[in-house]
Amino acid sequence: MGKVLVIGAGGVGSVAVHKMAMNADIFSDIHLASRTKSKCDAIAVSVKERTGVDVATYAIDAEDVPALAALIKQIGPKLVVNLALPYQDLTIMDACLIAGAHYMDTANYEPKDVAKFEYHWQWAYQDRFKEAGLTALLGSGFDPGVTSVFAMWLKKHKLKTIRQLDILDCNGGDHGQAFATNFNPEINIREVTAPARHWEGGQFVETPAMANKVQFDFAEVGPKNMYMMYHEELESLAKFLPELERARFWMTFGDEYIKHLTVLQNVGMTRIDPVIYNGVEIIPLQFLKAVLPEPSTLGATTKGKTNIGDIATGEALDGSGEKTFYIKNICDHEECYAETGNQAVSYTTGVPAMIGAAMIMQDVWSGAGVFNIEQFDPDPFMDMLNKHGLPWSVEELEGPVAF
Ligand code: NDP
Q1: Is the CB of 60 under 6 A from ligand 1?
Q2: Which pLDDT value is given to residue 116?
Q3: Does residue 39's CB lie within 6 angstroms of at least one atom of ligand 1?
Q4: Which residues are in the Saccharopine dehydrogenase NADP binding domain (predicted)?
Q5: Could you identify the atom of ligand 1 that is nearest to the CA of residue 85?
Q6: Ligand 1 mean position, distance from CA 41 (Å)
Q7: pLDDT band (50, 70, 90) for residue 192
Q8: How far does the centroid of ligand 1 lie from the alpha carbon of residue 348, in Å?
Q9: Which of 103, 190, 358, 390 could be joined to 115 by an S-S link, Cβ 3.0–4.6 Å?
Q10: Residue-wise pLDDT tens digits, 97-114
Q11: Atom from ligand 1 closest to the CA of residue 63
């Protein structure tokens, strides 16, 4: 039915392209471009073996707007799916505007020299996408992505207003390494070392990184320590659910991860400002990334499950008073690896990326302008989650969270 161009050949790009190939009725012509063409080729070989579908591959620097716009014009896709890094969001949006293609991503823009990811840079493209008659869909991964859609589904089907929202992201997987990150190490470490921020009383409240720890018993994983941190969907949820009194994001980390990260931070290895070494400028965090395992190599050894969901409290739609619901997905690392050759953290992002893309390719979600995922009807997206490997469940809890 349509032509799609995916940019980025990491774990998330790999899962999304495999899943697109499994849905050839929606994605009839798949193109994959990234900085290193050999990584695209390796994905194309795996997709061919698993599905019989051909994927065309290209080398591109997505920060080179004229070259990228030329590639998009040459291919002529309906949609460009950005699964490179947050640093490339704006240049890919620019190229889409020049070449006349819709745009989608899974992570909001972050400048390279400041660890501050915010939507305002991308929201500023609103008029340009509107005038061009093009759609830009922001944040169609798991978090952001599914966690936002979960909240909007609860708001549509269960709760008239959401007073309190807690997003709980648990990775109960074990990759057998002393220290490794399960997605891009540079992006991951910038995210977890940033100060925590949560929404309360109409504003963001900042607390030191990793200072707020709670133990939670996750279904099919067991008890884990989770830490409050800032995550980008809090910004869009606070905007599109104006009634929210409090919204927080929690992520689990093992003691070993925290210990290694603390040492790396204390010795300066997580710095993002340049230092001179042997007369050459290096950025410590980028050097650290180079010596850490590539997340895509962890798939073969990772065992266990992820459990990610939302707990929301508010006034019930049926007028029965205040209610609390817990909506979540549980995903098995080994099953994801068997299906796509990638572990569950890439899988839980790549599948919603494919689904968000399917919404645009089929014109189920449409409109001219820049949209966050909260602005579209959650139902068709939620249906596809159930059918394409990320089934969800919803249950009523006895009362609001006690932490
Ligand atoms: P990886 O680092 O594994 O892959 C990123 C890919 O982008 C690599 O193939 C890399 O190429 C390519 N790339 C980097 N810079 C450029 C450039 N200038 N031009 C073209 N290609 C480039 O990351 P992941 O697959 O783990 O993550 C991909 C995206 O998904 C990230 O933006 C991440 O933040 C986001 N994400 C979102 C989540 C969510 O739930 N919303 C969860 C996890 C990730 P090369 O190999 O040559 O370096």
Answers
A1: yes
A2: 74
A3: yes
A4: 4-137
A5: 32
A6: 16
A7: confident
A8: 14
A9: 190
A10: 999 999 999 999 988 887
A11: 18
pTM higher than 0.90 for the full model?
yes
Domain 3-138 in CATH: superfamily? Answer: NAD(P)-binding Rossmann-like Domain (3.40.50.720)
Show me where the domains of the chain are located.
3-138, 146-342+391-397
Are the CB atoms for 165 and 248 separated by under 8 Å? yes
10 CA from centroid of ligand 1 (Å): 5
Residue 348, phi-psi category: left (phi > 0), alpha (psi -120 to 50), beta (remainder): alpha
Distance in angstroms (rounded) separating the CA atoms of residues 345 and 334: 11
* Assigned CATH topology for domain 146-342+391-397: Dihydrodipicolinate Reductase; domain 2 (3.30.360)
CA torsion through residues 375, 378, 379, 381, sign: positive
62 CB near ligand 1 (under 6 Å): yes
Task: Judge if the beta carbon of residue 112 lies within 6 A of ligand 1.
Answer: no
Q: 11-64, pLDDT tens digit by residue? A: 999 999 999 999 999 999 999 999 999 999 999 999 999 999 999 999 999 999
- Separation of alpha carbons 345 and 66, rounded Å: 33
- Taking only the tens place, the pLDDT of each residue in 249-268 is 999 998 898 889 889 989 99
- Measured by CA distance, the residue closest to atom 7 of ligand 1 is 84
Tell me how far the alpha carbon of residue 265 lies from the centroid of ligand 1, in angstroms.
23
Each residue's pLDDT tens digit, 385-400: 999 999 999 999 999 9
Q: Does ligand 1 have an atom closer than 6 angstroms to the CB of 8?
A: yes
